[in-house]
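During the reporting period the student researcher (J.K.) took over the structure-prediction task from the postdoctoral fellow and processed the backlog of single-chain submissions. One of the processed entries is reproduced below for the supervisory committee.
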Amino acid sequence: MLLADDFFDGDFAGWTVVDEGQQQGSSDWKVALGRFLQSSNILGPAPTSVDHRQGTFAFWNHPAALEWTNYSFALTLRTADDDGLGVLFRYQNPSNYYKVELDSQRSFRKLLKMTGGVETTLATAAGGYVLNTNLALRVDVSGSQITVTLDGVVLFGGPVSDSDLATGTVALYCWGSTGATFDNIVAKPPNQPPVLTLFAPANETTFPAFASIGLVAGATNFEIQLNLVEFFDGDTLLAGFISPPFVFTWTNASFTNHLLTARATDSQGAVTVSAPVIIHVVYPPPATLLDPPQSQSVVSNSSFYFRSRAAGSPDLRYQWRFDGVDLDGATNRLLYFNSAQAAQAGAYRVVVFNLTGSDTSAPAVLTVVALVSNVVATNAPPPRIANLEQIDQGQFLLTLTAPLGAAVVLQASANLQDWSPLITLTNSGGTHYYFDPAAVHSFQRFYRAILGP
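J.K. obtained the following structure tokens:
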């Protein structure tokens, strides 16, 4: 802490008063009710002046303060008058300092520089202040950057740059403002930027195409409010958040290397950037068949299926062909028929593909043979579901056993009470199959097999 004065001790030791104005009498500085009060209407050079104004100020006179460079200077101001009040900073002498001046009657806010006795306006904005209200004014100086905040709002559109005055103390200022008070004076080393960390993803992580990439950032060690935390891919903004948690899921990263950063902006416009994280998004491997369909011979009117299994990116696509022609709707890794017919005998292939390649199976030949006997075996066991296999998410293949030549009705229920028929399978060689793609729409689904008429 460089300076802290709340005037509860009843005096203003350490402050030196300088009067520049020549009108309305001399200044009248004193401590009253725990505040530093200036009760005269001193001003100059004229009551109509809007620049080069001369009022009164009290500066912190410790010799070491003249060597202060970068600091944060904050205080509370209040007045029932509507004329000028504000602060000086990097004050060296009456001819060299910066000044923030607010004027409610004339509705302006100014950042001014005095060098060699010559005043220059660095920034100006419309607006004054609210009378009879505590005003929180803060000035942050760091190198050539000057940031002024009033009641938590950054003035002048953000930091203002000027490098003419590098060191100096602070002062309290008013112009024609009778009854202006100053309190809770604090000067301390400059606000430290937050420590911003990009926790995820980990550096040098490789992601497959279309992956959901989670970005997680955290900010610590910040003294003032963070207004915004943003995620960047190089110079491209991905997302921004005004409050924690700072979490973003990136789903459309291109196939290349990416330099990711997080950036935090505080309420004074200061920006800090995290250490970069490099990730790699790679093309998906080309689709490759691992288990191609196999030739088979089935009994006429029985159910059958071809299956395949492939490797590649998660968004694999399938297309089945019969004698070289695409089969409409045959786009699952399993091709199912509930009743084999002679016209379906022939060569079947499956093509599996993704963005980077495709693979086509060798022909799997289907042979359909006539049923030798249609006589249902007597005293045979009832039909049963021998196996239930999940083929894809929410899609199931059922294997049923039944007496030779029997008709089997497969039913489904959502509650074990109300049963609906799915299909009747007849004249099989003893084993039935049923592929149920509609199960994906059910919260729960039960199956049973019974003998048909």
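The committee noted the following: Residues 364 and 424 are 27 Å apart (CA to CA).
J.K. will present the remaining backlog at the next meeting.
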